[in-house]
Amino acid sequence: MISSRLTIALDIMGGDNGPHVTLPAAVKALQQNSNLFVILCGDENIIGDMLGELDPDLTSRIEIQHCSEHVAMDELPSHALRNKKDSSMRRALERVECGDADACVSAGNTGALLAMAYHVLKTISGIDRPALVSALPTEGHHKLFLLDLGANVNCDSETLFQYAVMGSVLAEEVTGVSFPRVALLNVGEEQIKGNDQVKFTAKLLQDAPGINYTGFVEGNDIFTNCADVVVTDGFVGNIALKACEGLAKLVLEEAKRVSNQNLMTKILAKIALPLLRKIYLRVNPDQYNGASLIGLRGIVVKSHGNASSDAFLYAIKEALQEVHRQVPQKIKDKIESVLMERS
Amino acid sequence: MISSRLTIALDIMGGDNGPHVTLPAAVKALQQNSNLFVILCGDENIIGDMLGELDPDLTSRIEIQHCSEHVAMDELPSHALRNKKDSSMRRALERVECGDADACVSAGNTGALLAMAYHVLKTISGIDRPALVSALPTEGHHKLFLLDLGANVNCDSETLFQYAVMGSVLAEEVTGVSFPRVALLNVGEEQIKGNDQVKFTAKLLQDAPGINYTGFVEGNDIFTNCADVVVTDGFVGNIALKACEGLAKLVLEEAKRVSNQNLMTKILAKIALPLLRKIYLRVNPDQYNGASLIGLRGIVVKSHGNASSDAFLYAIKEALQEVHRQVPQKIKDKIESVLMERS
């Protein structure tokens, strides 16, 4: 599919299970994409031991960059930013910044990744703050991009407006939908509903050229085919997505619990559980799909901290897609044209 | 259980299905509570026709208050407040205000109910704005009170502080937990996390006498036994709860969809669906439990717009509980003592 050589820098030490998850995913990605080259950032001894003997074709497409440190999952972002100059996370980002890699993937500490990516890569001109975005599954296997999922918890209307522009570009480039529908998350669909921030953002979007703004949507709409992009601030987006994660977990636990009640429900639950787990995976987008950090002068994909190898592989594929679609360049073009027409 | 006579005013015309849902629930409530008296607010012809012949004991505990209007489900709250003076919703609230009824239950238009209740009943001294609160189910069948669910979308820290006090009283009175754990909803548990509003509220709560403030919790924690009360503003609370509603619906739809794939999944899904529906009901608190409007000088319980008769009956029972526990008086006492100790 993708013809020219692509290079992805991987934070091998990031995530709850580090190289146990990231390395098998890297190897699989190389096997599946003959034009892929990977830079494995992490402890060279661990990586060397765990990789073992590989096919020479794969070995020729691997560079190991030794890093003496890694960012802990519970480390303060400010501490990581100041002190972890030789961490696998930071080095992976730097390889994108200097042009060696086309994108970076990490399953590490989200706050630290946000802080480091912002510091190392900088934002695209016209974009104040990066956003975390993920594609949620909706009815009919449609994709809905929700942002921000927690990169920026103090958003003003101008930032939300920029998020709408970025989301629109991402949806168009990744899913191929032309002129994607962009909606604002609110407590009701009527124009009079909502807080001041969302009402003012609506005004900005109504007047914006080149954005297909369709109005307000409610919380329950994010799992329907109500829009292609739903914009909210990082505080609301993070809490809404995590609440869904909590509910999905409760449903699974509840099914397990009732399975202990009597023989009949035990049998029923045993049969229902695999189905529930399958559904749970599909509706738990954060865990399954990873999230993209957009608005930066480089591509960064965040895989979930407790991602499986399959999920980390999916995050690598997502990064490849974004490279192929030149998402940062497209965002730059779009924001320039929107800002020019507004002024 | 409850010995003295209790009177509940019911908005019979409210909700998607009006008297078809509310009347059977009213009759059941009378049958189950021999000391209950109900004021049925609505169209007397419809109510008379639908009630039909009843046991004289029940008839003697029913008053029908004819109302010439009702508030439409999609009516603007400001319009309803100005124009629907003889609506079933408004009359029910007025019967609480003048002391004829101990509480009011409505499944009608939430925005209109909020506006009318605020206007007719007024807030308790020391409380700026009422809040919508509902008990969520969590692991181990524990109850967690989440507020605000959308009464107030522009909250400042002082309002969130008052919500914490009210939630604490409600949890203590309804569930009997002494010194209930009160947490603030945030994007992380560390003190440095969150937006300015939540950080400042945390400071107010840390210093508050008589409130068992336990810190920040994340979105996924609201379905665990992390706290007895979780406080957030109405914008976040509404969106988080509705997102969960949307996810629960998607899970059900997904189970139905896979049931059409092949014979085996068809059988599996057929077996799993009743279990899923049962779980769905339990984890869809808004629909099942209704929500209380607290902070007012009277008790108002909001049942879901598309509540079933069972759900509306549950809302009546919730109102009876709050009457029995004298929740508004307890909130008044608590906020007075907290404010006195603070000053």
From TrEMBL, chains A, B:
Pathway: Lipid metabolism; phospholipid metabolism. Its EC number is 2.3.1.274. Pfam families: FA_synthesis. It is found in: Cytoplasm. Keywords: Acyltransferase, Cytoplasm, Lipid biosynthesis, Lipid metabolism, Phospholipid biosynthesis, Phospholipid metabolism, Transferase. Transmembrane segments: none annotated. Homodimer. Probably interacts with PlsY. Belongs to the PlsX family. This is Phosphate acyltransferase. It comes from Aliiglaciecola litoralis. The lineage of its organism: Bacteria, Pseudomonadati, Pseudomonadota, Gammaproteobacteria, Alteromonadales.
